[in-house]
Amino acid sequence: MSRARRTCRLLITAGPTREPIDPVRYISNHSTGTLGYALAKVAKARGHEVILITGPTELESPKGVKRVGVETAGQMEQAVVRHFPSADALIMSAAVADFRPIRVATQKIKRSGVAGSLRLWQLELVENPDIVAKAASQRKEGQVVVGFALETEHLLTNARNKLRSKNLDAIVATQLSPKKKGRGPFGTDPVDGAILDAKGRVKTFRALPKLRLANRILDTVEAILSSRATE
Q1: I need a surface site. Which of 33, 53, 79, 108 has the fewest CB within 10 A?
Q2: CA gap 35, 185 in Å, rounded
Q3: Which pLDDT does position 186 carry in this prediction?
Q4: Helix 73-83, helix 131-138: angle, nearest 10
Q5: Per-residue DSSP letters for 114-131?
Q6: Among this protein's residues, is 29 annotated catalytic?
Q7: Cβ contacts of 126 within 8 Å, gap of 6 or more
Q8: Residue ranges of domains in the chain
Q9: What distances in angstroms separate CA 199 from CA 7, 124, 164, one per listed residue?
Q10: Percent of the chain, pLDDT > 70?
């Protein structure tokens, strides 16, 4: 695919979110932000303006990229709502926690401290906002929204369902297999998966390094933006 002829403003999300349980504990996931940061690096190298909304990571921001740091899904939603109206595309690669505790304890929750006792502790959760679906439903004409799907089974079926239900322009689906050593799509490991778009095209990949995957994702985004500019 050819690259976009004009410079675009790309909004990219990366990393995990952390949903607090008490002042020292939180719900999160294994996301390192590697792919999101690779996307930001590639996009900047291609001459695009990049805003990177990132959850907690140990990665260094690519030079020339505006970084917006957040912790929770709620904070990430607020940042996306603030920056998306002026963006040409949203690439939602962040691994946003699906749930958060209904109540956050103001003090550290203590163990019972009684040897041999069995104390059950229940944590009530509520769903977090669906950021990418909200952005897709509120996008202006010409804006592109790309989602991500990490699946353990039925990769293409689940990805197609998510693509349609959230009204996305494209989705990047990656496979997490319990048979694989390591974390699969997490960290710097090469990944298996597919890129699907709203026109039904599917491009699969196997053992693809994340920097190369980032280039393929940007090719897809640029092609969609270019096609809409000529319509």
Answers
A1: 108
A2: 9
A3: 65
A4: 20
A5: -TT--------EEEPP-H
A6: yes
A7: 99, 100, 101, 102
A8: 9-98+126-229
A9: 24, 40, 11
A10: 89
Contacts of 167 (CB under 8 A, 6+ apart): 133, 136, 137, 145
Residue for token digits 């996306």?
80
Q: What is the pLDDT of residues 148-197, one digit of tens each?
A: 999 999 999 999 999 999 999 999 999 986 655 444 566 667 899 999 99
User: What's at 85, amino acid-wise?
Assistant: P
Residue 122 pLDDT grade (very low, low, confident, very high; cuts 50, 70, 90): confident
Superfamily of domain 9-98+126-229: CoaB-like (3.40.50.10300)
Tokens 């990430």 sit at which residue? 76
By mean pLDDT, which of 62-76, 112-126, 188-202, 211-225 is the weakest? 112-126
pTM: predicted TM-score of the whole model, two decimal places? 0.91
Q: Are the C-beta atoms of 175 and 197 separated by less than 8 Å?
A: no
Catalytic residue among 29, 128, 158, 167: 29
